[in-house]
């Protein structure tokens, strides 16, 4: 009877040492406080009664939002920036043995790096060169977390909030730039338009019928606008006669 009871107790102790790790998990095992290795995935056994214990590590990619940070750019503009961090554990041994809490450590590092990198760039760079800044963020955090056994996949700015006064100034600047471009385009079009008008005048001088057709087209355009403009048609011959008469009078007066 006693032997049966002892066998049951021993069996219970042996069974209590069984563990199951999922496919995406690894168990960092310690024996009497010293690291002995990794176990999993699947079924594995630990020496019971506290001789061996484990620390589970998830190997999947973790998505971690970075809380909104208020920081100052290089040109002394206060901005509020949100970011998102994606990372995963590459080496469970280093993640457990090197850092006390690697999850918090990675998040705090990403937060500090975000503030530092934004402070090294002007506001225009933060708004227009986000891909460049995201790459710099990821590179900086990656170099620091690699010894921890953690790989940073991405660290990207999610949203950049700027003060209302600065938004109005930027809107005025954008409007001024558009007006500048419009004036430049208009000025560049003047020589081309003048050249085309000169070519058209040469053609009309050699072909009076073309001049009459152009006059008729102008009358049609004026009438299509539904206005009260009165148009008096005058034959082109009157213009030639007036010119000839003016020259005759000038010659007679001299």
* Chain-averaged pLDDT: 83
Shape: rod-shaped
Main sheet summary: 3 strands, antiparallel
Coarse structural class: alpha+beta
Series of H and E elements:
HEEEEEEEHHHHEHHH
Explain the layout of strands and helices:
Blueprint: H1 2-16, E1 18-21, E2 25-31, E3 34-39, E4 42-45, E5 52-58, E6 62-72, E7 78-89, H2 92-97, H3 102-119, H4 123-128, H5 130-145, E8 150-161, H6 164-206, H7 208-223, H8 236-253
Antiparallel strand pairs: 1-4, 2-3, 2-5, 6-7, 7-8
Helix pairs in contact: 3-5, 6-7
Structure report:
The chain has 254 residues and is an alpha+beta fold. It has 8 helices and 8 strands, in the order αβββββββααααβααα. The protein has a 3-stranded antiparallel β-sheet. Strand 6 and strand 7 form a beta hairpin. Helix 3 runs antiparallel to helix 5 and helix 6 runs antiparallel to helix 7 (208-223). The radius of gyration is 42 Å and the shape is rod-shaped.
């Amino acid at each position: 009877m006693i032997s049966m009871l002892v066998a049951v107790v021993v069996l219970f102790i042996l069974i209590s040492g069984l563990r199951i790790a999922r496919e995406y998990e690894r168990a960092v095992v310690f024996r009497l406080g010293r690291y002995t290795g990794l176990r999993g995935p699947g079924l594995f056994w630990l020496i019971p009664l506290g001789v061996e214990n484990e620390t589970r590590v998830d190997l999947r990619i973790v998505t971690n939002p970075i809380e909104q940070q208020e920081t100052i750019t290089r040109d002394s503009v206060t901005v509020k920036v949100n970011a998102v961090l994606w990372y995963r554990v590459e080496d469970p041994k280093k993640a457990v043995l090197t850092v006390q809490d690697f999850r918090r450590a990675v998040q705090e590092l990403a937060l500090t790096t975000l503030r530092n990198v934004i402070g090294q760039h002007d506001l225009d760079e933060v708004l227009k060169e986000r891909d460049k800044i995201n790459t710099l963020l990821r590179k900086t955090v990656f170099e620091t977390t690699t010894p921890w056994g953690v790989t940073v996949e991405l660290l990207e700015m999610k949203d950049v909030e700027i003060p209302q006064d600065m938004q109005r100034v930027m809107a005025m600047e954008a409007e001024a730039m558009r007006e500048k471009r419009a004036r430049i385009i208009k000025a560049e079009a003047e020589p081309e338009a003048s050249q085309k008008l000169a070519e058209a005048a040469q053609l009309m001088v050699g072909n009076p019928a073309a001049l009459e057709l152009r006059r008729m087209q102008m009358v049609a355009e004026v009438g299509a606008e539904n206005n009260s403009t009165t148009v008096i048609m005058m034959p082109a011959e009157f213009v030639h006669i007036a010119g000839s008469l003016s020259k005759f009078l000038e010659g007679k007066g001299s």
